## 1
Amino acid sequence: MIHILIILLLPLLVPGLISRVKAIMVGRIGQSVFQPYFHFAKLLRKEEVISSSASLITAVAPALALAATFCAALFVPMGNSASLFSFKGDFILMLYLLALAKAFMVFAALDSGSSFEGMGASREISFTAFLEPAFLLIMAALVFSTGFTSLSTLLSSYSISGLEVWSLVLGTITVFALYLMLLVESARVPFDDPNTHLELTMIHEVMVLDLSGFSLALIHYTAALKMLIYASLITQVLIPANASLHLLWYLIGILGIAILTGLVESLMARFRMNRNLELVLVPVTLSVLALAALIARSMGAW
Amino acid sequence: MIEILVLVFGITLLFASITNMLSSIIRILVLQGLILFGITILKSTHLNWLGFGFIALETLIFKAIVIPWFISDTIKHNAIHREVEAYVSNFFSLALMSLIFLGSFALAVFSGQQSGRLFPLEFGIAFATIIKGLFIIIANKKLITHLMGYLIMENGIFLLSLSVGTDLPHIISLGISLDILLSVLIGVLFIKRIKSTFDDADSPGQLREE
Amino acid sequence: MMLAIILFAYPILAALSALMLKSRRKLDFLVLLHALLHLGLGLHGFIKRGSLGAMDDMGLFIFLISSTLYMAVAFYRLGLGQDHNVKAYRVHTIFLMLFIAAMDAACMAKDLGLIWIFVEATTITSAMLISYEHTKSSLEAAWKYLFICSVGIALAFVGILLLILAQPENATLLIHKISYPAISPFWLKISFVFILVGFGTKIGLAPLHFWLPDAHSEAPAPISALLSGALLNTALLPLLRVERLMQRAGLGNTSQQLYLMMGFISVFIATVFILKTKNYKRLLAYSSIENMGLIMLAFGLGGFGIYAGYLHILGHSLVKAALFLTAGNILSIYHDKHHANIKGLFYRNRATAWLWLLALMMILGFPPSPLFTSKFFIITGLIGKGYYLPVIALILLLASIAWSMIRISLSMCSSEEGEKIRLPLWTYLSPALLLLIATVVGIWMPVFE
């Protein structure tokens, strides 16, 4: 029950919090934290303007993307240690549902017939192409330490305790890699600037340049939901296994990540485009290192 | 504790793949020297003042202080441009780094099954460091970067000597460190001379087969 | 033990005192004294085995070869011209003595770790010696040499560490104490490959030879003689020691196969480049690669091939040093390194021309050179083991090398142009002496164990 409520209501809070933090950091008062909700409601009422070269895909793609992301969110434990659906190995399904959502967005971008969207789509794909192996490797490291089960069981049985040094190490690497993935997937600084409207430098924004009204509202919500999924993964890794007041810790975690992202966005500049492509490999290398070290450690003598 | 230090050592290699500045590679060398100091101290079972002095000298003073100081001094005095000029992009370097990690850990696990005295984690990361040092030498244009790649390789060999299970006698360790220090000194001297005769400190290509 | 201390104390003290000397003559005398001391101690160690730092016979052999060469080089330097500034000469002398001291220590040491340290020390000191002239090409050659050899030696150290791993208990690096029944063959093999690659870089085995032509051709003549004649042998020593270990541990086949392979590749590559090269000093450097390849072939055969190997080491060092010293003479006459520009050597300086031709004949293996015997043994050994096709290839390669070298030298010596030049006596005497010793060895053919 809580799960559905969180999925429906929480996502749009995260971008709002990020914008508020950014505004405060530069000395403005900034928009209200709930502004994205108002924006969402406003967009629902607006009329859609559709490009003349668009086809059916543009009409259905945002809805399909939302559907895929929503289904992916059902497998992620939010609010307490169990998710709505789970079965053995469901994290693979979740990964590919997210990839499906991205595929639909890319189709919509290509479908509009403008070269800007095509450019944005290709950049987006090239940046995120290496995150899938990273995610699977991280999952592999978790599976290696706790066994091949469903995502929620993995996350809940994996606990970081200060006493056992290796869990600390693995936890740090996992959280860091996941956070990098969050930044890349939700198109945040330092990988992409969501506020820029210079065509040469847009990546994610440019894909949705041609959508308006209801479709745009769905896209905003989908992006926020994706960010929430990654943030939930990070939070669940950090929360110890049998914690009471799980919901409270969860909310603190999500909001903490949002504030952290706001700080990161304010304090860093966006990297050059070609550097981004290089840096996207870092989660992969980190997770390779973690996995290999885990395996070596389990066979070694100290 | 040792394992964390060794893992951090491995992560410094990642930094070496990402960075574009010479000064960060020098910082990586300093960090590696400090980590090696920590690992050696934690690993030695019996420690008297003399042994401690030797170890501190080799790792802390040579690797973490003296050699990086020499190199940054050379860079300043010869006005070497501060960018690492690589022949391959950072992307390729990072991808290769992942492969190197995979390969050396596979080798370490395989060797660990063959011999009981090995420490697979140190062995794997040491091997990865050696190969990464070789790669830095091959894939870069500047001579000073070649020197730094050689030093990273030597750090890897030091870690390897820690991972085979017996302590090397102190005399030999000291001799090795002195050798490395001397080669760095002479290398730096050569770079100065090469810069003044060739007017640039890039990889010279004059002697061809004729 | 006392003698070993004297052997090492002298270079250090002499190096310190050289810092204060101002004249070339005095610096030359320091070197001469060192050479005399070296030879004297070597002969003493030969007569009373084991008195010089408990050196075993292999080390003593190489030590004596180095002493002979060092004597010749010290005398040769007396005949060199006075056209460089004293400061550079002083540095050069200091590093020369330190270089010899490092080589001696590498011959004497029995602990693989110590051997490694001293071989690396020879790399460092000789790199300074190569770049004596501070020209562009010599600096580049010295850098390449320093770098490639240092990286190679580092890999050799990986092999040494793996050797520690190969011993299940009481791991030691003292070669004669390693207990070979208990060694794990897997690790020994891997360690051997690394050591072969590492020390092979220092020896100049293809495909790790890239520094050798540049370094040996850009260095001044006496240094080239020492590098080719003494340093390559010193780097060969640990390899032979580890190979003996492999034999005793039962893996002799593997090591022999590897030796044969690398030896053959070296001869092949040397041939290819000798046919192409235009610089006569590079020609000599490639010939060093070829001879090192032949030495590896000899040791890879086993049996009487080992005798042939040692004979070849002796012969090659003596004759190659003579060749490099004579090449130094030619360079001081013509000031040009390309052999196409050198004509009429016979007319301009008859003694040098005779030395050059004689030395060349000896290096190619014409009797009474010791290389004739060793090459004969190598070829018969190969036939005896059934390697017919490689033997034919080897003979073809050696013949091409001979053709190329003879052609070049004859073109250098023929025609009559230019003015006659006389060189100081020492520059003739040193190579002549070396050739004489080589001839005596070739005829008498001492038997070593």
## 2
Amino acid sequence: MQPAHSNTVIEASKLGLTFQTNDGPVRALSDVDLTIGKGEFVSFIGPSGCGKTTFLRVIADLERPTSGTISINGMTPQQAREARAYGYVFQAAALFPWRTIENNVALPLEIMGVSRAEQKARIKRTLDLVNLSGFEKKFPWQLSGGMQQRASIARALAFDADLLLMDEPFGALDEIVRDHLNEQLLKLWDQTNKTICFVTHSIPEAVYLSTRIVVMSPRPGRVTDVIESTLPKERPLDIRETPEFLAIAARVRDGLRAGHSYD
Amino acid sequence: MTMASNTLAQSPAKQAGIFSRIVSGSVFPVLSILAALVVLWYVFAVVMNAPFQRDLDRRAGEAPGFVEFVGKTLTQPKPVLPTPYQVASNFFENTFMRKITSNRSLVYHAWVTLSSTLLGFAFGTVLGILIAVGIVHFVALDRSLMPWIIASQTIPILAIAPMVVVVFAAVGITGLVPKALISTYLSFFPVAVGMVKGLRSPEIMHLDLMHTYNASPSQTFWKLRVPASVPYLFASMKVAVAASLVGAIVAELPTGAVAGIGAKLLAGSYYSQTIEIWSALVAGSIVAVLLVTLVGVAGRIVERSMGGRPA
């Protein structure tokens, strides 16, 4: 582990979450210690059931931890949510089908009481950022899956939260669209200097995007390895063929294998 | 990046010739069923009117031939089963040949029934929505109200209608409102059930999304639950408007109403005017079809404006 950042965004210590189900308690998270600094791009990778999505939902105050502590910008998750400290991107685009793209992006702004004029400016800026200018008046069903997911990213960016939580946002898209969106996401991260937490089950995606990769394993969900990326900030797509990239990928794969018991 | 605009343009190649559309579409099958029904109707009219005609002939000492006998069964003034032609000509005469203010005009009677249908439908829709909003927001109402609502629909409306009218007459309220309330009684139910489903239809992900925005319950209600429930509202309103019409007609039966489709049905049965009964039935069916169609069209317009994919 590296020394604590001077400007810590997320700090979890001994974090645990146990779901009470009809088949008895299920430990979704156990003893998670993690510190995420400002401007980092952190990927969470692991097999299903390893608690990576649960950890993201704890940060977002969509789940309550049952043990340990977690703070976001020094606040509890609930306070952070009430302060609108983060934007959340779900596995599916989750656009409202009865709203046009621009009105979908406007949704959080309406809820947060942003003025009409300001709404217009922000819609334009964020749709430019995700390359969706010209599609303002379209309804979600008129867009492809990749475009819908870009619109949902624009919606998460619209209210300028410094933290972006992304839960397998490109999981349902095909490889080519996914590559393209990964490239755009890196560019966007570079332009906006946000802190991004990104859940994925794809090793190349995690290595390509991240400054740090958190490898998790299931039953109970825990962190087994944290890998610092040595890749430069500038990352063309063909960086994925370099030995450096492959070495990091191999370490992630080893970490996944070590934590995974085939019982 | 232009693929979305292409999906907008509908292919115009589906304009087939009128003949092939008649054969392959639904017009031809529907018409052939209709023709079969009309034939069947005439057969039954002859069979059912024959005993009375035989009786008449015997008393008059006549012995008509087969063709003459069949002709007579189809032209009785008060037949057991009137023929389609008798019903149609009576309907035409009472709809188009009379002043619409005359109490023999079907338009007049249909209007009386329609006005209480619409008032009752409006009450019922509002009541159904209010009940649904309550049920969705308060667990206590969900537990306590739903069984009563379901039980309310198991009580025969014919048993309730006279009581409602008598009770309201006792406090000096007569005319349209008591009748409309019986329509309300029948129409609030589908709306309440449909809207409970509609207001609960948003996906977990959409609700989570609103939660991450720290949206207030009223913002979640107006921006998510209400728009998501609109298709459910119109589907249940279609059922409700038909139930409303039934309620209005039933309300006219035991209440001594002098006007309306129901009153017309009752008067017809008092005086054995079967032709009048049948033509009133036809008028009622036409009103029902118009109402359901109107609600359907309104629903389609609203859904289109809410980005509904053209079907």
## 3
Amino acid sequence: MPQPLQSLRPSPDEKLTAILDQIGRIRLRLNALALQRALFTSLALLIGGGAALVLAALAFGPLTFLASAVLLVTALVIGLRSSIKDAWRSHVDAAGTASLADRRVDFKDRLTTLVALAGRGESSLWPYLLEETLTQQQEFGVSRVERHRVSRSLYALLISGVMAALAATLVVAPAKLGLGAKASAPREVNVPVENLQVRPADPALDPGVEVSGDPKAMQELAEREQESADADSNAPGVRGGAAKLMDKARELASALQNKLTGRKAPQRPKIKLRLTDEAKNRPNSRNGHNRPGSQTARERSAENGSQRGEQQMPNSSSGASGPGTESAQGQRQAQPSPGDMASNKPIVEPAKPNPQGDNNLSNGPSEPSPGRNGPGVASHGAGTDPEHLFGRADNPPGAKDGFSITLEARLSESGPAAGGHGYVPPKVHSTLNSSQQPDEPLARGAVPADDRQTIKRVFER
Amino acid sequence: MSAAVVEMPGVADFARAFRRIQNEIHKVIVGHHQAVEELLIAFFAGGHVLIEGVPGSGKTMLVKTLGQALGLSFNRIQFTVDLMPADITGTRVIVSGEDGRREFSFSRGPVFCHILLADEINRATPKTQSALLEAMAELQVTVSGTTYRITPPYFVLATLNPVEMEGTYPLPEAQLDRFLFKVRLNYPDETELTQIISTTTGPDEAQVEQVFPATEAAARVEALKRLVREVMVAPEIERYAALVIRATLPESSKFIANKQGLARDDAVNRYVSFGSSPRGGQALILGAKVCALLDGRANVAYEDLERVAQPALVHRLMLNYAAEADGIDTSHLIERVLKSVRDRRG
């Protein structure tokens, strides 16, 4: 009974279908791997490139970073293009799969021939080829042709992930530790101010340093400031186009770096120098260099107080319309431009000298005004020796002599700016004394112990 | 003929028959394993073979043994300068009939056989050499306007003596191209030489047995040759053979209209004056088919093509004087061609 036996044996078409099915499965795996490779490689390139960009932003200066960023982006584009192209090339059809399988399992091009000649079957050896191939079906099993289910480019993705984690750590950790500002800010700023006088400003008011000097020094300082401003902003012929482009590139790179690293814009040395004419102040100052400063401080206090709506000392209201206000306006007018900020120059805000050669700061507040600005009252300002806080306001020896110093300003995280709140002097109630002299100190016991410590600390600062 | 009664052999039959013939030949021929195999491949591929070897290397013996092993008729022509075409093909002679009448009758020359040994073919004039052309290509001989068929299988083995080149006539390219393979018989090594001396100087001569019965030998051989033609070749592999042939053509050749896909190999452009003809591609595929059957396959693989590339192409590449001056060997060029095409295939 040969017929039932024959019906059990697969026909040539069934054999061919079985072989082609197996080739189809191999093809599926190969194409899945190609797709995975494209995906993983592209992701690895994107993540790794991004991490490298962040690392470059952390490690390099703006222009070096810009150059490296351009290189990185170019390499990234080329890499993405080639990876996609590579994956597309790895995508195989049935003939390609057969050829690949033949090569990998050394199948002597049987599968290639089968796929190419399937359906033709003209040769008398076709059944032989089918049968021979089918008997060796295990030889070209899917796992033997391609044993990987997941593309090895996953490792590249993992490596790029590690890189990204490293970059993220480097970005986040310094911010948490508060190291970013230190790293980004210039460490030291030297400003030669020659024959100027410097004293600390009222900590209750703006942070910074007040500078006073003779009219000549003031004028020189103002002229230098003006020249610097003119050179930066009003002289297009002086700076070439390349320099401007460099500036713009630097700004762009810097902004990009800040975005990538999460840093804020570099902290500029906010040193505000308020100029006062020491020569004009001298006859009225009890301490030689604190009265004009205290006057200016009061005016600024009044101005700030009017802005904040805070209640200030009664005397400050009269000074609000004085020359000190002009000085403050001048200060606002002389707000630094971005270019100035970028050039890391210390911000010096001189008052403009008047035609007579006088500093405008010397006009109002430093004039003696017994009714409102008597000795002892004014000495509550900044700069007074804590030990002699309420002592007699004597003229210090040598107060008439000018001197010159070099101001070396450093950034500090502690200071008036860090404190946040301005200091409001306590209201001191003292027993009236009919024989109280203007320069006679008040009784120390009237000042509460806590406030005394605060006052002492403030003046020590 | 008895061809009709012979059953179509299978792949295993072919390999078995091939190995048996090979073994019979090696009873007499010591060494030359590759040459013998190439000779048999060409024989079953239906081509003719040019054998190049120094005197005494066993060329004549090889062909004679092949005839004996196959049980086919065998003739030998010693080519000399004064050999005439009619001496090969045969001529019309006047014969007397029984009734006394005289008439012209065609007397068949030695070309009418199954296996013909054209010994030292380059010693005959080109006119005589070309007398073989029709027989080799079309298995027929035309004499005085009458065409006589040669009974297949028909296999011509021509030998060339590479020394004593004086007074010889190098074979024209057209005739060289008609040989499927060129087989080189090199000097035997020490062991082989010792064995040759031992087997040929003793009292006993090696007895070669016929692989096929004498009555059906020709039919069996023809059946095996038909089986060779049945071997399947994927289009990619045919294209690969075409690429190999194209890669042997120098770019400077004026006979090439479309130069796309030509060899980028500098050596080919520098040293080859004429590359392979399309017959080279046919030789590659036919030889590869025999190799596939020998390997028990019904399909040709790339490696089959590369296996027969040397004997199939070595006599088809005409090198120029620069190659001779630089001592460039044709085999070396073929290796470079194969490598370049392999690299392009990826």
